[in-house]
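Pipeline run #58 for the internal structure catalog. This entry was flagged by the ingest filter as a single-chain record with no existing model, so it goes straight to prediction. Upstream metadata was stripped on purpose; only the residue string is passed forward. Reviewer on rotation: M.T. Logging verbosity set to normal.
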Amino acid sequence: MESPSLSDKVGFLESVTDILGRNPVDFADKAHFIQSTRGTQNEYSAAGVLLLLYFKPDRLSSSQREGEFTFQLIKRSSTVTQPGDLSCPGGLLHRFFDPLLRPVIMFNLLPIMQGKARQYARMRDKETFNTITLFLTNAVRETWEETGLSPFNITFAGPLPSYTLHFFRRTIFPLVCHVKKEWPFRPNDEVDRIVEIPLSVFFNASSYGTFIIEMPDEYRTMREGPLEFPCLLFPDRTGDEEILWGATFSIIMNFLQVVFGLRLPDLLSKRTIRKTLSPAYLTGHIKRS
């Protein structure tokens, strides 16, 4: 299948749905693994997140067809772990409420999973379909709590393979969704603001760099020397520079590889950014006067 065109809003979303619908996912296997760790010293948690695609109209154009696709991410507040990082909205699976709420999406009581995306999900085995709808429910609920994004304003496009953070013993289940229209941002205390990154930025090799992290002294015994990660560098609305790295960077790059065949460029000649993490980075606690 040809790569979708970023300039064709309807065609792009249809192509993304087709490609993701046919792409294999590991949701059921990873859910089984997480279940098997319960009650052990190495128990893993599960989290559903939404990779939000929004077609941002060109305000200088009278045509609704002119604009660009963006990823809508959240910037984490200082009260949570990994403060200041860019993330997909979503959060931990609630073992009681999310299975209870799942029929709302599973039986189409909310218009989130419809059309070809629903057909593709149904074509997978029953256990995978059930797992997709469970984590879609989880991610939609968490996104609404974190940002105020209405479930009526999003449509499901398809799942991406899971991503595991072994340091945090957490597996992330990403679901790609389309945001239908501009919406009022109402953050809770976990979110600082929404950051939009145009998809076109990822096709510019000069946007990439290497993020070198020094761990706080109390964590140095866990690993000697700095950690190096690929990252994306881009200006925010104030002109400051944002750094996209870690799990969210990997999830987006996986999406771009699946949909466009885009691979990470050679980083040897790219910019290098250095940062020492604060002790609060892994705890989310901040000192208050």
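catalog note: The mean pLDDT is 90.
catalog note: The radius of gyration is 19 Å.
status: ready for reviewer M.T.
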